Amino acid sequence: MRQLFRLMLLAVAAISISGCGYNAIQQKDEAVNAGWSEVVNQYKRRADLIPNLVNTVQGYAQQERQVLTEVTNARAKVGQIQVNADDADSLKQFQQAQGELGSALSRLLVVSENYPTLKSDQNFRDLQAQLEGTENRITVARGRYIQLVQDYNTFIRSFPQVITAKLFGYKAKPNFTVDNEAQIAQPPTVDFGTPPAAPQPTPPQPAPAQ
Fold it and tell me: What is the pLDDT of residues 87-131, one digit of tens each?
């Protein structure tokens, strides 16, 4: 009799937990974690392409040392970050570093346009194609992650899941700030200014009438 009573209590508890969204919170939390792993994997794929890209460009355009150094330093900065996706400040730092790396890569590819021999190099063309493909994958993975986090945050803030989330310590997760990232990723605008107009010569004055 006691065993039957315990089984009934367990069944009621399971139904109550399911009705309060506990299982769904677990599923959505795991989906967010999987989405984040994909984002990190695609960013790592991009970072792994950079050394070969820099070496290839350097073989044809050694004088572009500043741009090459910027890319190398930006990649090193990304590698030093120990990101925690559940911490807003850590995620912001990670996002900014990745944006700076993307901006440096954009400048490097712009510089390559000045070297026809480099552009015709098969290795460079292959690396450029891989890099473009990886950028697309990053965009897709980041967009999916943003949606997963929004779905998770909306769900745990809704009733009755909000009660379950508080009981079990589930909190809203920080997300990418798309507007800021787009701004960081844009290469800086170089403006040398408009040169001042040259002074116009003063026309000669007519001679006074005699």
Answer: 999 999 999 999 999 999 999 999 898 999 998 999 999 999 999
Type of residue at 28: K
Maximum CA extent, the chain: 137
90 near 168, Cβ under 8 Å? no
**pLDDT of amino acid 198:** 39
Report residue 57 as tokens. Answer: 């460009």
- Nearest of 101, 97, 99, 109 to residue 53 by alpha carbon: 109
Q: Which two tokens stand for residue 148?
A: 């997963």
Q: What DSSP string describes 67-119?
A: HHHHHHHHHHHHHH----TTSHHHHHHHHHHHHHHHHHHHHHHHHHTT-HHHH
This prediction has a pTM of 0.75
> 32 is written with which tokens?
């967010």
Angle at 65 between CA 191 and CA 112, to 5 degrees: 70
**43 Cα distance to chain centroid:** 8
Burial label, 50 (beta-carbon count in 10 A; 0-12, 13-18, 19+): buried
Which tokens sit at 130? 């891989």
